[in-house]
Backbone:
């Protein structure tokens, strides 16, 4: 195998790994955002119910 094929394989592997890491980060960020939104909504509902009481 010549060096250009090796470089192509390493570059391809790096691209796949980078894509995988990025997708993990995006999924984690989406979970954090969903949790934060749900908590904020819950707090707003509690404030509204206390005001109504």
Residues:
């Amino acid at each position: 195998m010549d060096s250009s094929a090796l470089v192509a394989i390493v570059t391809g592997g790096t691209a796949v790994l980078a894509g995988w890491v990025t997708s993990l980060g995006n999924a984690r960020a989406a979970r954090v955002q969903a949790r934060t939104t749900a908590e904020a909504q819950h707090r707003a509902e509690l404030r509204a119910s206390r005001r109504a009481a």
